Amino acid sequence: MVAPSLIPQRPGDRVKTNRRDALSLAKLHRAGELTPVWVPDVGHEAIRELVRDREGAMEALRRARQQLLSFLLRHGRVYTGRTPWSKSPTRNSKANEINQILCRLKAMIHGAIELQLPGIRQESLARA
Known about the structure:
Layout: H1 18-31, H2 42-74, H3 91-127
């Protein structure tokens, strides 16, 4: 099997017919200028998909960690240790701080939504 993108073509040779293509491919094959490609089987594709999924998960984890650290930094929580993701004895106290911050943030969001809901309800009733 040969990939179409790996078939050498001369500039200006734009006319495409089955007969011309067959002659061109036969000449290139005889000259040994065609590059064979390998089509992966189901097992290889499964492994490739697993590797892609793992890379995606690791990237998502890295992004989530960065977002959490940025969030904590915006709220004045600076970690001074070596790495913030090691299993340290202070993890539980930090988790409690994070939970408190997240609860306050959630309450703020719900409060803001509740303040806007009466206006939204009145606008939707006026439209109906």
